# Entry
Amino acid sequence: MATPAPSLGCRVNVGCGPAEQRLLLTGLHSVADIFCQSCKTTLGWKYEQAFESSQKYKEGKFIIEMSHMVKENGWD
# Structure
């Protein structure tokens, strides 16, 4: 059995910006950027609201872009 991933909602080192509407590949969504509290790098976004019924399952979920998850000079 797989262990579920921890919720970003309880992490103190990740911030969430204001929600804004964006037209994504899967339709119109209200999303908020999530970012590192330490360096302010945008890590991805949180789906706040989906406007199409087929996309409602995304609400409250996070997308983290892997390109922002590796720090080249270490984690000092």
Remarks:
- The longest strand covers residues 14-24.
- The chain has a mean pLDDT of 83.
- Residues 14-59 form one domain.
- The two ends are 34 Å apart (CA to CA).
